[in-house]
Amino acid sequence: MAQNSKEKLSFQAEVSKLLDLVANSLYSEREIFLRELISNAADACEKLRYQSLSKKNLLKDEKDLKINIRVSKKKKIIEIEDNGIGMSKQDLIDNLGTIARSGTSKFIETMKNKKEGDISAIGQFGVGFYSSYMVSDKVDVLSKDAENNETNIWSSNGKESYSIENAKKEKRGTCITLNIKKDADEFLDSFRLRTIITKYSNYIPFPIYLKDLDDKEKEEKINEGSPLWLKDKKEIKDEDYKQFYNNISFNFDEPLRTIHYNAEGVISYKALVYFPTNQPMDLFNADRKNKIKLYVQKVFITDECEDIIPNWLRFIPGVVDSQDISLNISREMLQNNPIITKIKKGLTNKILSEIEYLAKKEKPKFETFWNNFGPVLKEGLYEHNDHHEKILPLLRFENSINDNKISLEEYIKIMAKDQKEIYYFSNTDKNHIKNSPQLEVFSDKKIPVLFMIDAVDEFWIQNVNKFKDLEFKSITKGKVDVSKVGENTKDNKDKDKKIDSKINDLINILKTELKENISNVIISDRLTKSPILLVAEETGMDINMEKLMKMHNQKTPDSKKILEINPNHPMIINLSNNLTKIDHKKMSNLILDQANILDGNILSNPTGYLENLTEIFIK
Ligand code: ADP
Questions:
Q1: Nearest C-alpha neighbor of 33 from the set 169, 167, 111, 127
Q2: Strands of 532-535's sheet, edge to edge?
Q3: Which strands sit side by side in the sheet containing 466-467, from one edge to the other?
C-alpha cells in the first residue's frame, strides 16, 4: 500500500531526451499542451464511465463527469482537473515516469527526421502528457484512484527525476498543476485559454469549465460538448467537422473527405469517419491499431475494437455509435460479435464506395489518397475477404508504356494485339525494373507491363491471380511466350529459324557445367538487347518474392533458376563460334556470374569472377 515517505525516482534516459526536446520546442506550437491534457482528462472520464457500467458504485455521488480548468496570473499556475478514473501510485510511475512507453523513442526518431513543425503530432505517439513541459518548469500531478481511493502526488521539473509522495485529495480523479515558465506567461490569460479550448477541444464529450482564480466571476462552460456525430448533417459546419477530426485522430491536416452517415436496417448505427489528407506517421508501425472509437448511445466503449474495421483501413479515424449493442458489453464480448461483424461490413463497403467516388469524380484528391494509402489498401487483397472486387479497380500502377499511373481497366485498353495476360514486373526498385533485360521484348513489341513497386504487391498477387478473366503473369518467372503477341511478330519467327547447331552446343555446355546451379538453359523469347538472363521456374517462387522473403529472414528453398540466352547477341554468337578455343568451365561460370549481377544478386565468389574476367582481359 501507499507509503508516506517521499520517493525520488529517475526518468529513463529516453524520457529525459524527449523532455529536453519538448522543452525546447517552437513557441508557435506550445498551445497544444492544453489539447493534450484535456484529451487525457477526457480519456480518464470515458474510462471511468465505461468501468462504472459493470461496477455500479464506482461513480459514488459524483455522477457528472467533467473537466475543470483554472488559471491564476498571481500564482502563475494552470490547473487541469478531471473527476475520471484517476491513477494509483503504480499507474503514475508506469504512465508518467520510469518506463519509456513504446512511442517515446519513435517520437524522438521522427522528430529527428522531420521538420521542427511536427511536434504537434506528439499525441500520436502516446506521450502527450510530456507536452506540459513546453510551458511549465514544474508539473504536479495529484491523483486519487477511483477504485481504491489511493492518493498520490507526482512532481517533477522535467529534467532527470521526479518524486512521488502520499497525499490527500477530496475528490476522485486527477488534478494537474502546471507552474508556468516565465516565457510562457501568455497562457495565464483566461481569454487565451478559452480560445485554445474552443479551437481544439470543442467536441470533447464532457463539459469543460474555465475559471480565473484571480477573478470573482463564476466558472464558465466553454465547449460545445454534444456528440457531433448525432447532430443533423445540415447543422454541421465544415470547421466543426475538421475540428472533430483533429480531436479524435491526432492528425492535424485537413480531412480529405468526411463521411457521415446513418445506417438503418438490420443493424442501425451512425458513423462519422474521415480520409486523412496526409499519411499519419504511425501508418506502418508494427503495433499500429485502428482509429475507430466505438460508442453505444453516446457512451464511449472502446477504441480497441479490432473487429470494427479491417486492418487495411487502419488509417481511417472516426466514430461508430450503435444502439444495437448492449451498454454492458465487455471488451472481450466484442470479439467475434455478430453485430460488430455486420457494422464492419457496412462500414467497409461505405468507405470503398467513397474511395471509388473520389477515383471517378475527384481525380486530384484520389491521387493524393492513392499515393498515401494505396499500399495499405493493397493489404486488403492479400487478406482473404469479400472486397477484392471493389479494391481491384482502385489500384493504380506505374507502367512501361506511359508516365501516368494506370488502373487495370486502363491496362486492358492499352493491351497489345492478341494479348491474353496481364504482364507485371515486381521489384521495389523502379529503376531496376526500367533497366532490366526482362522488359526488352515487351518494349520492342509495345506490350504494356505493370510495375509493381510496393513490397506488398508480391503478396497480394499470389492471392488474386486474375482480373476479369485475365491472369496476372510475372515477366520474371517461368516461360513468357509473347511470340504471337503485339508488334514485330513475324520478325521474331524469322529469328527463331536461324538458330544453328553451334548455339545448341553452347547451350549443352552451359547445361553440363552449371547443372549444380541452374535448372535449365534455354533460348530466350524475351531478350532482344541483352545476352543473358536469369528467371525463376514457373512453379518456383518469383525471383523478387524470394529476395523479399530472404530480406525478412524467412526460410526459402534455394530454388534453381533458368538461364536464358539470346542467340542473336554478338557475345553469344562469338562464344558459340569459338567453343573449341575457350575453357568451358570458366566461360560458364563467367556467364552465370554476369546473369547474377544483372539480376541484382550478390556473387557467392566475387574473387573467382574477377580472376576469370582479368584472364580474358590479359589474353
Ligand atoms: P496517451 O494519453 O496518448 O496514452 P500520455 O503521455 O498523454 O499518453 O499519457 C500517458 C498515460 O497516463 C495515459 O495513457 C493514461 O493512462 C495516464 N494519464 C494521463 N493523464 C491522465 C489523467 N488525467 N487521468 C488518468 N490517467 C491519465
A1: 127
A2: 518-523, 561-565, 532-535
A3: 398-399, 450-452, 421-426, 470-474, 466-467
Instruction: Provide the grid cell at 284.
Output: 506502418
State in Å, rounded, how far the first CA of the chain is from the last one. 87
- Minimum-distance ligand 1 atom for the alpha carbon of 126: 3
Tell me the pTM: 0.72
Contact between 239 and 229 under an 8 Å Cβ cutoff? The reply is no
Q: Comparing 414-423, 461-470, 599-608, which segment has the lowest mean pLDDT?
A: 599-608
- Nearest-atom index, ligand 1, CA of 176: 23
The count of other CB atoms within 10 Å of the CB of residue 586 is 16
Q: Which residue's entry shows cell 519467327?
A: 493
Q: What does the chain come to in residues?
A: 619
Which part of the chain is CATH 3.40.50.11260? 389-490
Q: Which CATH superfamily is domain 494-536+550-618 in?
A: Heat shock protein 90, C-terminal domain (1.20.120.790)
84 lines ligand 1 (CB under 6 A): yes
pLDDT digit string, tens, across residues 160-201: 899 999 999 999 999 999 999 999 999 999 999 999 998 778
Domain at 389-490, CATH from 2.60.40.10, 3.30.2320.80, 3.40.50.11260, 2.130.10.10: 3.40.50.11260
- Chain Cα centroid distance, residue 237: 30
Is 125 a pocket residue for ligand 1 (Cβ < 6 Å)?
Answer: no
Pairing of strands 318-322, 292-296: parallel
Q: Is 206 exposed, middle or buried (0-12, 13-18, 19+ CB in 10 A)?
A: buried
Residues contacting 364, CB < 8 A, separation 6+: none
Q: At what angle do helices 13-23 and 102-113 cross, to 10 degrees?
A: 50
Domain 7-221 has CATH 3.40.50.300: no
- Yes or no: say if 588 and 575 are a contact pair by the CB < 8 Å rule: no
Rounded distance between C-alpha atoms, residue 205 and residue 300, angstroms: 9
DSSP notation for 148-187 = T--EEEEEE-SSSEEEEEE---SSSEEEEEEEE-GGGGGG
CA of 54 to the centre of ligand 1 (A): 22
Alpha-carbon span 49 to 300, nearest angstrom: 8
For 470, residues 6+ apart whose C-beta sits below 8 A from its C-beta are: 412, 420, 421, 422
User: What is the per-residue pLDDT for 101?
Assistant: 65
Q: Which of 221, 210, 216 is nearest to 187 (CA)?
A: 210
Rounded Cα distance between 272 and 307, Å, is 17
268 with 323: CB under 8 angstroms?
yes
CA gap 526, 440 in Å, rounded:
6
Q: Is the CB of 97 under 6 A from ligand 1?
A: no
> Which DSSP category does 503 fall into?
H
Distance CA 452, CA 433 (A): 9
